[in-house]
Write a structure and sequence with these properties.
This is Rgp1-domain-containing protein. It comes from Cryomyces minteri. The chain is of the alpha+beta class and 526 residues long. The protein has 10 helices and 22 strands. The strands form 6 sheets. Strands 1, 2, 3, 5, 6, 7 and 9 form a 7-stranded mixed β-sheet that branches. Strands 13-22-19-15-16 form a 5-stranded mixed β-sheet. It has a 4-stranded antiparallel β-sheet with strand order 11-12-14-17, with no helix packed on it. The protein is elongated and about 110 Å long.
Length: 526
């Protein structure tokens, strides 16, 4: 899809048939006729009739649309405020107006009725949104569902009255720009966000089971959006995007262009980029040649001479990928309060324990976080350290049903963990990796996702008897025997200690490490 932040490479169909294609939704006519043959009838030749093989496949209409929705856990989030959101739009664009409880009467007038094609007119009317009016049962079913609309687009027509000969195929393109600020695809405990592309077809004829609209849902992955400054954009869950006007672009693809597949698309994109860069270079050279040179009679200009300068301007990033790249480059710049964004000094009761240093505080999906714990010049020794890269969902207190601590324990997810013995260690290094399939950080009005490096330190108990200026390892060994030959020391069986933990914030953007924004297509037979 053109204009979207990114799309996933994992597709699957949600059809109930084993072959999982739209063609499998329709039973062949020969199979329906064969079921009426008596058992005592004489068997015919196994060669099927030629008229059945050569009969074309006729599809009255085909459409495509994008639907986004989310669900909430009723044990963690109060769902009562979202009942009004469910009434704002019906998923799939099947909502209709009219009088509640009034059944629709079939139309026999008009152009389709005069030609005897009333069923086709009714099918087109129902497909384009002029279907049955609302009823109390539909409103109850909509209120009882757990799915809450997030994005709903109208059904974009791909074709009308399509006739395919045996072995013939047709390809169509569907392009739609997703609204900015949508939350990414997420499978968490408190909230689950999903997006899918619905592709439907319908055969002509009377409204029987074989002529009903058949559709498949193709899920795709959405990454969170950022603004030009690299800040993560938020979304109001109480205001879904219910788009009534068709803004998608659809067109038919020639058979010759579909042979090369995604490879030709990549070549076309590369050639387009090369052409644009060549044009920019030529225009730059023309501007240099057209600019009059000051005091041209004096020959070459001196390098030390201060020439005229044009006012500089800040060029805005042309894509979200560039915005994320610039945000990561600027992440190590200290703020005005002289607080470092990648260096954290850890203290206990005013005494220094360690210093946590990150290579940078912002990363992409799939990258490795490089971090170091420095114990040099520590006032309190550290016996053990445990580091975990985790995510947790944060729920707005206005709709939360539990305390923040209970919600953290329920929604916590550990992606990587590292443990090490810190006795006599001056520093510890660890490098957890961010999974590609993880959800990037996002912010909504109700539920948000945060990434953190949680570090647990095991230190001596405050108030215990240990000498700060004593030899290394003091208090870890006890004397067993001593004579003129020497002293025997053994490790103590019990050690008075305590533990505490700190959470270091880490920002994870919705961009795959090493990825590009070139258009890459994957074929999926529907």
């Amino acid at each position: 899809m053109n204009g979207t932040p990114r799309s996933s490479v994992d597709f699957h169909s949600m059809s109930n048939n084993s072959s999982e294609t739209l063609a499998s939704e329709y039973l062949p006519q020969s199979a329906r006729r064969g079921s009426q043959t008596p058992m005592h009838a004489r068997q015919k030749s196994q060669t099927p009739p030629t008229n059945h093989q050569n009969s074309p496949e006729v599809l009255m209409i085909g459409y495509a649309q994008i639907v986004g929705s989310f669900t909430l856990d009723g044990s963690l989030v109060n769902q009562a405020p979202f009942e009004e959101v469910k009434r704002k739009g019906v998923l799939g664009g099947q909502g209709g107006g009219g009088v509640v409880g009034v059944e629709r009467s079939k139309r026999e007038s008009g152009l389709f009725g005069a030609l005897g094609w009333g069923s086709i007119g009714e099918s087109l009317g129902g497909l384009l949104g002029g279907g049955e009016p609302s009823s109390i049962r539909e409103m109850r079913n909509q209120a009882n569902t757990k799915t809450i609309p997030l994005l709903s687009t109208p059904q974009s027509i791909l074709f009308v009255d399509l006739r395919l000969a045996p072995g013939e195929s047709r390809a169509y393109t569907y392009c739609f720009t997703l609204p900015r600020g949508l939350p990414p695809s997420h499978k968490g405990r408190a909230m689950k966000v999903s997006y899918h592309l619905t592709i439907g077809t319908q055969r002509p004829g009377p409204m029987t089971e074989q002529q009903q609209v058949r559709h498949v849902d193709v899920p795709f992955r959405v990454f969170g959006g950022v603004n030009s400054q690299g800040e993560i954009m938020g979304h109001d869950l109480m205001a879904p995007y219910i788009i009534l006007q068709d803004q998608a672009r659809t067109c038919s693809v020639d058979a010759s262009s579909t042979v090369s597949g995604a490879g030709s698309m990549q070549v076309a994109e590369k050639s387009k980029v090369n052409d644009s860069s060549l044009e920019d270079f030529l225009s730059y050279v023309d501007n240099l040649l057209d600019t009059p040179r000051q005091n041209s009679s004096s020959g070459l200009l001196s390098p030390s001479e201060a020439g005229p300068r044009r006012p500089s301007r800040i060029v805005e990033p042309s894509s979200m990928k560039e915005s994320i790249d610039f945000a990561i480059l600027r992440s190590n710049i200290s703020s005005g309060s002289n607080q470092s964004s990648n260096r954290f000094e850890i203290s206990r009761s005013g005494r220094r324990v360690a210093v946590i240093m990150l290579a940078r505080p912002a990363y992409r999906l799939g990258e490795t976080i490089s971090a170091v714990i420095d114990f040099a010049d520590a006032d309190i020794p550290c016996y053990f350290a445990h580091v975990s890269l985790e995510t947790s969902e944060k729920i707005d207190p206005a709709i939360a049903l539990r305390s923040s601590a209970s919600i953290y324990r329920a929604t916590r997810k550990i992606h990587a963990a590292y443990s090490a013995n810190a006795l006599f260690a001056r520093r510890l290094a660890f490098s957890p990796s961010i999974p590609h399939a993880a959800t990037p950080e996002f912010v909504t009005s109700g539920v948000s996702l945060e990434w953190k490096l949680r570090v647990e330190f095991v230190t001596p108990r405050l108030g215990a008897e240990y000498a700060e200026d004593g030899p290394p390892g003091h208090g870890l060994l006890e004397e067993i025997a001593k004579d003129d030959r020497g002293t025997v020391l053994l490790a103590v069986e019990r050690l008075l200690c305590e533990s505490f933990e700190v959470a270091v914030p880490v920002r994870v953007y919705g961009a795959v490490a090493g990825g590009s924004e070139s258009v890459e297509g994957e074929e999926l037979s529907v």
